[in-house]
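Residues determine shape. Next comes a sample protein:
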Amino acid sequence: MKKSPFFALTVVLLSVSTTLAQAPAQQSEPASAPQTPAQQSEPAPQAPVPTQAAAVPAYTPKYHGDPARCESEFTALAYMRGVMRAQMLFNKHYGRYATSLSQLVHTGNFTQRMINPDRGDYTAGFKGKTDSFVLTMTPKVLDAQHRSFYATDDGKIHADETKPADAESPAVETHHW
């Protein structure tokens, strides 16, 4: 595989920045008189290093009208859209909805890997009947940044930050397949 000159420049810049980050800061100090052996063995006093709380960067919406509040919500909502789209395509092709996630494999962009209900910070729940389905995304920690989600065959995704979402929860997205 041939690497571009840009790749080589990037590698060089990364190694220089890593070296600079690891090198101790050099301060110019006035020349001082030679130290005695006793003075040479004592370590120089270190200035305290200021500590900063690691700030969590604010979520940047991925598109106009993005209802997500964090990256994991964005991923959970994307998964829901994928399942809902696959269900709509399945219904269009077979005249009914899939009753299990495994039936949706290879429908639209739904893959074998998507059957796994563990979706990172969320757990997917699915109940399918031939005439309807319910899809839920439950966060492992329910808070304002990790809401629970609920969707059915009506194309609406509902969200709630205080309890498991249901049909009565406010809709955050509506799809017209």
